[in-house]
Amino acid sequence: MTTNRTLVIVAHPNLTESRANATRLAEIKDLDNVTVHDLYQAYPDFNIDVAREQQLLREHDTVVLQFPVFWYSVTPLLKAWFDAVLIPGFAFTFDGSPSELRGKKAWLAITAGTTLETYTAEGLARRTLEEYLAPVTQTLQFCQLDYQGFHAVYGVMFDPSDEDLVLEAKEYRRLIATSEQPVG
Ligand SMILES: Cc1cc2nc3c(=O)[nH]c(=O)nc-3n(C[C@H](O)[C@H](O)[C@H](O)COP(=O)(O)O)c2cc1C
Hints:
It is a single chain. α4 (76-85) links the parallel β3 (62-68) and β4. This protein has helices at 20-28, 39-42, 50-58, 76-85, 129-132, 134-142, 162-178; strands spanning 6-10, 34-38, 62-68, 105-111, 146-153. The protein is of the alpha/beta class. Strands 2-1-3-4-5 form a five-stranded parallel beta sheet, with helices on both faces.
């Protein structure tokens, strides 16, 4: 059996103040065959090394994008990463030929400040998180990645206990360690 190599791309602008994302990272840090790549640490000035990023993607079979929801979307550096790294020839083609990303799995690991109830037609957000993420999931699929779904924790701004965050992070670890598909 070949080993599945997973690249976790973390895009949180302030991990020292983070609870949910930091807890997730602490849970996965000792996993074999997992590379954790902290974008804000690597590129605090948003000066992305495109060749390095593309090489990292080539070297892994599964890509997990881990980020907090900022204004119903990804954080600014993750959007800048899409714009810089996912370029024609490498990430997509216009003639149906395979991109360098074809066949790799991708999923999203999201933290949201507000509750799951908020993300309903009747709730304050008026749409589900899945609906808000459509541009991201379409980007991944356009780049011929095999989109697996997302794993979300909601309500982080309502001070979940450390125990709840650790429990949630253990489920995140399990998904990465087993290469199982997230349910969201
Ligand atoms: C600029 C900004 C925008 C945010 N926008 C949203 C949002 O649209 N929806 C939401 O649920 N939470 C939003 N939040 C809350 C963050 O998603 C939440 O604080 C984060 O997921 C918590 O994770 P952490 O403990 O790792 O920092 C926002 C936070 C900031 C700073």
